[in-house]
Amino acid sequence: MNERYKFDVSTDFLRLRPDCTTEPLPLGNDFWPQLMSGKLGDFRNEYLVATSAFDCDWNNWECHPNGDEIVMLLSGRVTFVLETATGTRHEELTATGEYVRVPRDTWHTARTSTPTTMLFITAGEGTRHRPAGG
Questions:
Q1: Sheet containing 107-111: order of strands
Q2: CB count, 10 Å around CB of 54?
Q3: Cα gap 101→71, rounded to integer Å
Q4: Based on the structure, what is the number of domains in the chain?
Q5: Residue 35's pLDDT is what?
Q6: What value does the mean pLDDT of the chain take?
Q7: 31 located within any domain
Q8: 120, 73 in Cβ contact below 8 A?
Q9: CA–CA distance, 28 with 9 (Å, rounded to integer)
Q10: Are 112 and 57 within 8 A, CB to CB?
Q11: Coil, helix or strand at residue 131
Q12: Rounded CA separation 10/88 (Å)
């Protein structure tokens, strides 16, 4: 049996399980629809490690009610906007390796106009979205 040990987060995301094991999740055209429909599981007490590249503001807000999210800048520049109990916060990431800790149940979005790549460690169970205008 040829078990793989080497992976690339641009082609395989990663599930971090509550029993401290991991599962590579190969990317393909059907990855996001499968994730959103629950075909990859509900991510109860699990985290998804993923990357995303974008060059414009997100068109939605998101919120993770079941755990904190870590979002790390790999390249580019981005401003994270968080709705907190004390008001809206803007956290600018400009250096590779800087990250934002988004507390559990905090609505957030990202703004940029430059090519940006980020690493996400997300408590995915119950993730909610709303349009950026909402």
A1: 87-93, 78-84, 107-111, 60-63, 128-131
A2: 15
A3: 7
A4: 1
A5: 85
A6: 92
A7: yes
A8: no
A9: 13
A10: yes
A11: strand
A12: 32
CB 80 within 8 A of CB 102: yes
Give residue 1's pLDDT. Answer: 59
CB 25 within 8 A of CB 124: no
Is the pLDDT score of 38 beyond 90? no
Assign residue 16 the CATH number of its domain. 2.60.120.10
Residue 129, amino acid: H
Would you give the distance in Å from CA 16 to the centre of its chain? 13
pLDDT digits (tens, 9 = 90+) for 69-103: 999 999 999 999 999 999 999 999 999 999 999 99
The residue segments making up the domain with residue 30 are 12-129
Q: Are strands 60-63 and 78-84 parallel, antiparallel or unpaired?
A: unpaired
pLDDT at 132 over 80: yes
